[in-house]
Design a protein that fits this description.
Elements: E1 3-7, E2 11-16, E3 23-29, E4 37-41, E5 48-51, E6 57-59, E7 65-68, E8 71-73, H1 77-85, E9 91-95, H2 108-116, E10 120-127, E11 130-133, E12 137-141, E13 144-149, E14 154-162, E15 168-175, H3 178-185, E16 191-193, H4 194-202, E17 215-217, H5 233-246, E18 253-260, H6 264-275, E19 281-284, H7 289-295
Parallel strand pairs: 4-9, 11-18, 14-18, 16-17
Antiparallel strand pairs: 1-10, 2-3, 3-9, 4-5, 6-7, 7-8, 11-19, 12-13, 13-18, 14-15
Helix pairs in contact: 1-5, 5-6
Bound molecules: zinc ion.
Zinc ion binds near residues 77, 78, 190, 237 and 241.
């Protein structure tokens, strides 16, 4: 049987928020089965819980911001991608400021934080529940599109096309497993274009951004002294973002997510559309391997991860 999972103990990290520029402390704590992922702002003197689901998305410009009762927490997607990649269903996430720390701009520091803090633990009182896509749901917006299609495992198929000599057209197909997430996706950093940074700062974004937490490209090349972590780091980061945004369904997916030039807002709109169509999905648990075979579904093992020497 596939069980729900949580973190084995409290782990924490501290760092600047890429958009707010404010230093915040983040803590991830174990949570009860069926409680899901819930953010809690601890700096406001009142306890406001913000569930990590698509109904609580209040802003999708440049990053995903969740909010409830006038309280928000921003740039949640890289942490959520790490939790998804580690198979974590339930956790309480405390933040003492308006934004999750950006750390190095990827999901790797969150993965290390959790694995070096004891990793994850199966909650053997409750089976894991999955959202199985049964019918294709699609949104097209000019030359950008997103779709969720029925498929026998969880895949993300992402295409980007930036008219820039370093980025250009890139495509990546990701099939979720513990190794594929750690090795192929978790280290891909967020990126930005130097010529847009000043305008972003003037609009209140990217105030904590630097070469330490983002790949920055000028008109011709990558400005970071150490270059890229993967030749196609840009599209891999879009996969990472998509993984975090898709986790806002609240259950791990079985289906194929296809995105062309998409971002946070289009993905959130697709999730709303899917959830408004009850016949397009079903929620299932798989108690025995035979049930997977009957349904023609392959699920990754996300249980026994240890801290790798180098992710
Ligand atoms: Zn990102």
């Amino acid at each position: 049987m596939f069980y729900q999972r949580t973190v084995s103990q409290r782990v924490w990290a501290e760092g600047v928020g890429i958009h707010s520029g404010r230093t915040c402390r983040l803590a991830v704590l174990p949570a009860a089965p069926d409680s899901g992922l819930v953010f809690v702002r601890t700096d406001l003197g009142r306890r406001v819980e913000i569930p990590a689901d698509v109904h609580h998305v209040v802003d999708s410009r440049l990053a995903t911001t969740l909010g409830h009762a006038g309280v928000t927490v921003g740039t949640v997607e890289h942490l959520l991608a790490a939790l998804y990649g580690l198979g974590i269903d339930n956790a309480r996430i405390e933040v003492d400021g308006p934004e999750v720390p950006i750390l190095d701009g990827s999901a790797e520091p969150f993965v290390r934080m959790i694995l070096s803090g004891g990793g994850t633990v199966a909650q053997r009182s409750r089976p894991k529940r999955f959202l199985v896509v049964k019918k294709t749901v699609r949104i097209v917006d000019g030359d950008r599109s997103v779709a969720l299609r029925p498929h026998g495992c969880f895949t993300i198929d992402f295409s980007i096309d930036f008219p820039h000599p370093v980025v250009g057209k890139q495509h990546y197909e990701f099939v979720l497993s513990d190794k594929s997430f750690l090795h192929d996706i978790s280290r891909a950093r967020t990126f930005g274009f130097a010529r847009e940074v000043e305008a972003m700062k003037a609009a209140g974004f990217a105030r904590g951004g630097s070469l330490d937490n983002a790949v920055v490209v000028d008109d011709f090349c990558v400005q970071n002294p150490d270059g890229l972590r993967y030749p196609d780091e840009f599209v891999r980061h879009k996969v990472l973002d998509a993984l975090g945004d898709l986790s806002l369904l609240g259950l791990p997916l079985i289906g194929r997510f296809q995105a062309v030039r998409a971002g946070h807002a289009l993905t959130a709109a697709l999730l709303h559309k899917l959830l408004a169509m009850p016949r397009a999905f079903e929620i299932r648990e798989f108690r025995q391997r035979a049930e997977l075979d009957v349904a023609n579904i392959r699920l990754p093992e996300l249980a026994a991860l240890r801290v790798p020497a180098r992710v």
